[in-house]
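Troubleshooting log. The previous structure file for this entry was overwritten by mistake, so regenerating from the original sequence record. Sequence copied from the archived sheet and checked twice against the printout by T.R.
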Amino acid sequence: MSAADRRVAELLERWTTSIDLHTRYLALDDAAYAKVQDWPKHQRPTRWVIELARTRLLELQRVADERRSRGDTAFAEALELMAFLTNLLGSEHVERFIPFAQPKTGAPAPRPAAPPKPARRSEPRRAESRTAPAAPPARSPSPTSRRTSTPAAKSTPVVDEPAANAQATATVIADAVRLISWGREWPQLAGLIARLANRPPEADVWKVLRKHRAEIEAQARRPRD
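Regenerated output below.
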């Protein structure tokens, strides 16, 4: 099985799991449905839309398995390319789709509130509290100490990233550069990238985009030689 075949098979499996969850969620009222997952903005899919998606998904899985058994690796690559172009060129009514649902243990229930936003707000305050005491020096350093301390003050600690995270970050940056260069706006990037095969969740994509925005925009707008 080629890498493209494996990615397509994993994507179809995730879609199947998501459709199964949406079938269970049909029994929920609108208030419970809104809380059962961290949904993006969308129109709630009806039963016939979910059943239609299941029928087409099973048909696509059958064709993909048949082509894989023949050793046709180009078919999976064509599927990935079509999915990318569909997200890039055909997403006009972005609210009309079946959002990805992740499996949970037990019956559908509201997800406990997580505190990511307060953590982000508190980070700048912690950074200010660390840097504020260093501003007023207790005593005037000698010329020699100034020379030796200046390079240390300018140096920035380097934190090693796991190889998997570094690879995912590089992939997201490359996707963002490509999408911007093709005319997509910044608010659209995370949703488009997260829908691609073998990409991080949309929340993680946003973290990478915010952290590397200057680098992404510089590469996207770099003139060609």
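Residues 137 and 193 are 47 Å apart (CA to CA). Archived copy saved in two places this time.
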